[in-house]
Amino acid sequence: xxxxxxxxxxxxxxxxxxxxxxxxxxxxxxxxxxxxxxxxxxxxxxxxxxxxxxxxxxxxxxxxxxxxxxxxxxxxxxxxxxxxxxxxxxxxxxxxxxxxxxxxxxxxxxxxxxxxxxxxxxxxxxxxxxxxxxxxxxxxxxxxxxxxxxxxxxxxxxxxxxxxxxxxxxxxxxxxxxxxxxxxxxxxxxxxxxxxxxxxxxxxxxxxxxxxxxxxxxxxxxxxxxxxxxxxxxxxxxxxxxxxxxxxxxxxxxxxxxxxxxxxxxxxxxxxxxxxxxxxxxxxxxxxxxxxxxxxxxxxxxxxxxxxxxxxxxxxxxxxxxxxxxxxxxxxxxxxxxxxxxxxxxxxxxxxxxxxxxxxxxxxxxxxxxxxxxxxxxxxxxxxxxxxxxxxxxxxxxxxxxxxxxxxxxxxxxxxxxxxxxxxxxxxxxxxxxxxxxxxxxxxxxxxxxxxxxxxxxxxxxxxxxxxxxxxxxxxxxxxxxxxxxxxxxxxxxxxxxxxxxxxxxxxxxxxxxxxxxxxxxxxxxxxxxxxxxxxxxxxxxxxxxxxxxxxxxxxxxxxxxxxxxxxxxxxxxxxxxxxxxxxxxxxxxxxxxxxxxxxxxxxxxxxxxxxxxxxxxxxxxxxxxxxxxxxxxxxxxxxxxxxxxxxxxxxxxxxxxxxxxxxxxxxxxxxxxxxxxxxxxxxxxxxxxxxxxxxxxxxxxxxxxxxxxxxxxxxxxxxxxxxxxxxxxxxxxxxxxxxxxxxxxxxxxxxxxxxxxxxxxxxxxxxxxxxxxxxxxxx
Length: 780
Fold this sequence. Notes:
By secondary structure, this protein is of the alpha+beta class.
């Protein structure tokens, strides 16, 4: 067992504690970025002028009218940017367009007003003339036009051509599926001002404050040490604030520098939905071959990601999709090509799972479609193709703990009483003509770490004050997921103090520099390692002081919940007394911690290496009931067993599993993104731009029975206190809902009916799948 993962007896990690801000969330006293401007004087409010064309040349931009509006202070255009006009990292994403707009709703200028109403009126007073250009809105249009950008990667292992030729069964098909709107409760917002020392302070709702600092530095042309970015907390992010928050921070920063006044940028829901990127929709085409034992021999596929107008994070998203097309299945011969379509709509971006859901959905859709054609249940086909120990991935990384796939699968079968319920479902379906039920199981194998190796590092600053209280600064951001709660538990365990003695400070770039995004499910692994390192430095110093006071060797000193004693417990001193004694002995009571994930290697040019520290495993069983007449359905029961290693905070992890599953089910069954694809003046406009037109899961979509359990005895050596990441992997457990809907629709047809099911599998899509099963043809 590594020192990093070694857990002391009676540790605070592993205990079930509520979210550290739970009371503040419930009472409404928790402060977010947009609450902070209320304490300031002279704040200016920013509002965008949005493009009314999907793709056009700007012929004329007249801003004078905005200055005639009462309360209108300043208009920001591309000409006002003193540095590099690019809010991304690929030099293809101007913060404000100089001469060409690339999507409907793109901000052309920002108006700063003494009130939000003045800023809105100012934006409405700006005059723009366009020359409309050809636009590509759908993924199909982009593929037909061969409109691609960025890298075109290939996963290539074995010999697919020969394996497909030798296969006993070969199937082929296509599958296009939609993206997803983040719909975080707190929309994008930032607040910037220049303080009395000339420092630019930016409060931002961002997952990546160091990159916000970098982008603002680039746009304003000022060095990073003059910019401080702070994140108090976020009201949700889900990847939507990893890259796309930077531009809004830069708008606020530019306005603050030019006017000398604080500037507030806050998007309302419609602005947020029309201006920000989504989860990437994908198109896939594939051929798959099986041997006579129904084991996968080979897979050839092409995945095309809908990237939108600029690259943003599309390249690493595509890479992750390619690396996870295998999910939990051994594919000895595989060749998968990836490419990114360039369209004239919002630049698609990170979303919980970061490409892995899209890659995994492809193989799950394939297995669900071909199982009836092989004359077997999809459940058995999946299990028959699980990885086993000693096998490696399409990118040649050995799969450690592959046996856990079988373990979680069997646990779900047993705990969900699947055999008995399947018999009941068969009986129900035989009796019911207009309603059908189905139960489906799907697995998850999910790699943890950033593909870009440099991002797998973190820092922390831990301060112990003379009264024994502890302040922890780390580079991760809190977006409701409970990262701060886990870091408090890690610090309390590492120092041997009570939980109440530890407080987390807001994330700031002047306390912990050069941080990575809180993303890739790595927040606890990276920042936990750094916090633990800092705390252990302090504890080692204090152990020397305690050894003198207790008259024992330093190695015999024990720290436990605020009591410092010798091994026998005969002699002890309280933590505050020890800290005070250390202060008077001039012992340093602060430490900078650092952590880097060891053992990682990734060659993007060959798509080979060891990009992941470990794999998280899970399995879910979902039961649905479907109505023949309108395709409506009920999610009757869900059973999940998930591998989180030795949980740092079980209550937090259970919440993440439940929330991730529901968000995944929303993507796969409800959330239907639509753009206007007509040739009207509104071509390219987001049609689903509010809660009234974009359906997210609510209590009515929750399963009637929802059972979640954590896999026991799942220690992960080399990770902080033996834990595993939990943020993203549970989202893909929701594949079981979609597969259950497929099986329920097929139950309206003859035995062995294979169903092609759209995604999202809305009631309308399920209705047409039922019609297909009943032999009534495809939807016109």
